């Protein structure tokens, strides 16, 4: 099951919808706006396991619960942003995504 939450932010925006096919998490090509700069996220496919997908200037990065987030490359504003939280419970995926809406 994939669910989404959205928030209004002063300097970030994206609307990325992941999908699951054949037990893989698929993330589409997308644009991510951070502090008035648009970063292109290339399409990727990842193993479906517990962890969090983060956005970085170079693309999507999956961090498992055991890994350190400090290894992520930050955006120029020194921030990292999460895109989706993935949990697999009894063989079924539970994915929560964040849609960031730019404050106007």
Give a quick summary of the entry:
The protein has 104 residues and is mainly beta. It has no helices and eleven strands. 0% of the residues lie in helices and 61% in strands.
Would you write up a description of this structure?
With about 100 residues, the protein is mainly beta. The protein is about 0% helix and about 60% strand. It is built from no helices and 11 strands. It has strands at about 1-10, 10-15, 20, 25, 30-35, 35-40, 45, 50-55, 60-65, 80-90, 90-100. It is globular and about 40 Å long. The chain starts with a strand and ends with a strand.
What's the topology here?
Layout: E1 2-9, E2 12-13, E3 19-21, E4 24-27, E5 30-34, E6 37-41, E7 44-47, E8 51-56, E9 59-64, E10 81-89, E11 92-102
Parallel strand pairs: 1-11
Antiparallel strand pairs: 2-5, 3-4, 4-7, 5-6, 8-9, 8-10, 10-11
SS summary, helix count: 0
State the share of residues found in helices, binned by percent.
under 10%
> In total, how many beta strands?
11
Main sheet specs: 5 strands, mixed
Poorly predicted regions are none
Strand order of the largest sheet: 1-11-10-8-9
Q: H/E element string? A: EEEEEEEEEEE
What does the average pLDDT come to?
Answer: 94
- Computed CA radius of gyration, to the nearest angstrom: 13 Å
Class by SSE composition = mainly beta
Shape: globular
Hey, roughly how much beta strand do the residues contain?
Answer: over 45%
How many angstroms separate the termini? 31 Å
